[in-house]
Design a protein that fits this description.
- This protein folds into 2 domains: about 110 residues, no CATH class; about 150 residues, no CATH class.
- It contains 10 helices and no strands.
- The protein starts with 5 loop residues before the first helix and ends with a helix.
Length: about 290
């Protein structure tokens, strides 16, 4: 590994990211519909015929088929190769960011801490796609991402140079437990569900990857992002519902219910890699205003 240049590993991370993105496409489609991620295997959603492995390759398969299924010649959404390509780029970005955005692509990656950071960032960056796609539409967070983050954090903690397994475990327990307690208190005070358990498990995964203190910082940044984005969105949704009130009262009630459900997972997912990379810089900038 010491002789392999960075550009080669960037290509490996891109291909791996594209493969993970292909699996995330399966999660985004199947999980909200209650379909197993394993059985049945990959098949055409229209005629239900099995898709052979060589036609199921990320990005390449769509290009070979020219955007149409091999069995019934129906169009295949361009969203699939776009998602796979995006995940591939994010995978390569994970390693590139872990190296400190070096410009020497021919040098080998010798620092073991870089690999720990690259694996953590790989998980954080690629997790943005399924969390955002599912939570925004269905108000759900896939367990394969939230619980998987806890497992990934504990596994990466065994790589020397980063957090220890004990710190990772404590981070998951404190971050997840703290958010669960906060949501429990808020639910009692507001008399309605204030925090989904998926958000709790997702933050626990971030705690396992980065420690509980950084997970708390992610929670704060995500809350600020949520307020900035979702408060105006909720007001717009309420205005639209009010305009329909005179003709469709039932539709108004439905819109108000939907507008009150603010998905928090995507903001956590976006804040996590940002704080992993620039959390210390952001804190230094913040404290400079307090001096």
């Amino acid at each position: 590994m010491e002789e392999i240049p960075l550009w080669y590993w960037l290509a490996v991370f891109f291909v791996t990211g594209a493969c993970v993105g292909s699996f995330y496409n399966v999660i985004v489609y199947r999980m909200p519909r209650g379909i197993s991620l394993i059985n049945p295997p990959s098949h055409c959603p229209l005629c239900k015929k099995h898709i052979p492995l060589y036609l199921n390759l990320p990005i390449v398969g769509w290009l070979i088929l020219r955007g149409k299924s091999a069995c019934c010649k129906q169009p295949i959404s361009v969203i699939y190769p776009i998602g796979e390509s995006l995940c591939g780029l994010l995978g390569a970005l994970a390693l590139y960011a872990a190296t400190g955005f070096t410009t020497d692509f021919t040098a080998p990656v010798q620092n073991i801490e870089v690999w720990a950071d690259a694996l953590a960032l790989f998980w954080l960056l690629l997790g943005i796609y399924p969390v955002s796609a599912v939570d925004f539409k269905y108000k759900l967070i896939p367990d394969s991402i939230s619980v998987g983050g806890i497992v990934a954090g504990l596994a990466i903690s065994f790589i020397p140079g980063g957090m220890t397994p004990v710190q990772s475990l404590v981070g998951a327990l404190v971050a997840g437990g703290g958010l669960y307690l906060l949501g429990f208190v808020a639910t009692k005070l507001l008399h309605k569900d204030a925090m989904g358990f998926g958000d709790v498990k997702l933050l626990a995964g971030f705690g396992a990857l980065m420690g509980f203190s950084r997970a708390i910082e992610i929670l704060v940044v995500a809350s600020i992002l949520g307020i900035i984005v979702m408060v105006p969105y909720a007001k717009i949704a309420e205005r639209r519902a009010a305009k329909k009130a005179s003709s469709k009262k039932s539709s108004q009630n439905e819109d108000e219910e939907v507008s009150g459900q603010i998905p928090f997972g995507p903001f956590l997912a976006f804040a996590a890699p940002f704080m992993y990379l620039w959390g210390n810089t952001l804190l230094e900038w913040y404290f400079s205003f307090l001096e």
